[in-house]
Design brief:
about 180 residues, two-stranded antiparallel sheet
């Protein structure tokens, strides 16, 4: 087993965390914060947009089962990487599209995939996903962990997360954990 870590910010972390936890080879996907300048930020602090952190999901995965590149492809499927500092109605730098790379290989693979996606013109506008070195990861409060699974009837989950999850499950069926 080759355990690695990947960290992605795709706007609100509830959808990305729920999807990543359903993948074969993913040991854990934890919602949290990265990329800011304050220590031990809270959700309330993050929401001000003044800490510099992004809402992220940190993924520990077995690279012998699922690759970093596959995780990146799922990341790009689950959000709009052409929106700068926002995802839909969620606006602010805390909702930016970002890949925090943990080593040079991840940086190269993410950069190459972004170039390929841009060349293929799959999106109506240029990709604005930030590519930055990983920094200190702060896990989000416990009520954010597994939020979508625990709150499927909550309004945001019904109207924003559920459709993305349905698209994800249809597109990546072969990569889902067998229950």
């Amino acid at each position: 087993m080759t355990t690695q870590t990947a960290t992605f910010g795709a706007g609100c972390f509830w959808c990305l965390e729920a999807a990543m936890n359903q993948l074969q080879g993913v040991e854990t996907a934890i919602s949290g914060y990265m990329g800011g300048h304050t220590q031990n930020p809270s959700y309330q602090h993050i929401c001000t947009g003044q800490t510099g952190h992004a809402e992220v999901v940190q993924v520990r995965f077995d690279a012998d089962v699922i690759s970093f590149q596959q995780l990146c492809q799922i990341f790009f499927c689950l959000h709009d990487p052409t929106q700068l500092n926002r995802q839909g109605n969620d606006v602010g730098t805390q909702y930016r599209s970002v890949i925090f790379f943990h080593n040079e290989q991840q940086q190269q693979e993410a950069s190459q995939l972004m170039a390929e996606l841009s060349q293929q013109q799959l999106f109506a506008a240029p990709i604005v996903t930030e590519l930055s070195p990983a920094s200190t990861f702060y896990p989000a409060e416990s009520y954010h962990q597994g939020y979508f699974l625990q709150n499927p009837n909550q309004g945001y989950c019904q109207f924003m997360v559920a459709p993305k999850m349905a698209k994800f499950r249809a597109q990546f069926t072969a990569l889902l954990k067998k229950h």
